[in-house]
């Protein structure tokens, strides 16, 4: 496919190499690293066999040129983009993109500057993807949004010899007024939950007290033991005067005895003595 002129130039190049040997080896032998590939053009045409490397390769002087392509993973920050969400909220979002060259020949032959084009495409893709999401989805579904962006970018850059490996949403900045409104909403939600929990606690406590009162009501002895526990608790405090109810069962015997005696004053005197004791 070189034609007659191309073959003549190739032969002249080999003649120059032969006459200047071994000095010509300094300009004809090239080396690329393990993570690099060399895309060679001869008279403006790509050589058969694709990119060369890693290692040593040969370049004919005057008629061949080559371009080194780095195959390592490259990362770049997407500048903050002002995005209008689906629910009409303006947010500022930035991201980071990781990509690498998967086909060195295609990245040189199909696009003028693969790295610059990938950066511009990442910015537009970020705005387009976030424009279809609500604010709540952007805040809570970052992983899903990152995966969607990665698939969209990878499909578009496949024809450029670029493979997008990962996309991460770095930060979502909200307007100050919206931040205050969301903070007030969150505080109101927490207060409502606290009130519900307190009401449930009171309800459970009321049921427990009712069950305890039913148990005590079934036994007079349990009621008296409860009186004694209450007295013990009160006595722990430094009070000078204690007033407590006296169980009526203690007075039943004396009431019956007083009914059998003729004098009511004597019976009241006996009951008073017992109480004082």
Automatic annotation (TrEMBL):
Location(s) in or outside the cell: Membrane
Transmembrane segments: 6-32
Keyword terms, alphabetized: Membrane, Transmembrane, Transmembrane helix
Domain named Band: residues: 27-186
One annotated Gene Ontology cellular component of this protein: plasma membrane
SMART domains in alphabetical order: PHB
RNA-binding as UniProt keyword: no
Domain of life: Eukaryota
Entry's family note: Belongs to the band 7/mec-2 family.
PANTHER family: BAND 7 PROTEIN-RELATED, PODOCIN
Record-given protein name: Band 7 domain-containing protein
Gene source species: Helobdella robusta (Californian leech)
Lineage of producing organism: Eukaryota, Metazoa, Spiralia, Lophotrochozoa, Annelida
Recorded name of the encoding gene: 20214605
């Amino acid at each position: 496919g070189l034609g007659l002129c191309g073959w003549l130039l190739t032969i002249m190049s080999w003649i120059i190499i032969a006459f200047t040997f071994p000095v010509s080896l300094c300009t004809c032998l090239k080396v690329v690293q393990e993570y690099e590939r060399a895309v060679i053009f001869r008279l403006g045409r790509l050589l058969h066999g694709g990119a060369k490397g890693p290692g040593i390769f040969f370049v004919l002087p005057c008629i061949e040129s080559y371009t080194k392509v780095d195959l390592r993973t490259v990362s770049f920050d997407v500048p903050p983009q002002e995005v209008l969400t689906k629910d009409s909220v303006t947010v500022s979002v930035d991201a980071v993109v990781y990509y690498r060259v998967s086909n060195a020949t295609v990245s040189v032959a199909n696009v003028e500057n693969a790295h610059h084009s990938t950066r511009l495409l990442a910015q537009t893709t970020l705005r387009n993807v976030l424009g279809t999401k609500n604010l709540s989805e952007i805040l809570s579904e970052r992983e899903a949004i990152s995966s969607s962006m990665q698939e969209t970018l990878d499909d578009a850059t496949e024809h450029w010899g670029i493979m997008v490996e990962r996309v991460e949403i770095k930060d979502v900045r909200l307007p100050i007024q919206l931040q205050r409104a969301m903070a007030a909403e969150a505080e109101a939600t927490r207060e409502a939950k606290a009130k519900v929990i307190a009401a449930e606690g009171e309800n459970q406590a009321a049921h427990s007290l009712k069950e305890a009162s039913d148990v005590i009501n079934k036994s007079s002895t349990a009621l008296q033991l409860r009186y004694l526990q209450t007295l013990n608790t009160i006595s722990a405090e430094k009070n000078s005067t204690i007033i407590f109810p006296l169980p009526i069962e203690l007075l039943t015997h004396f009431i019956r005895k007083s009914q059998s005696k003729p004098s009511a004053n004597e019976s009241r005197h006996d009951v008073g003595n017992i109480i004082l004791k």
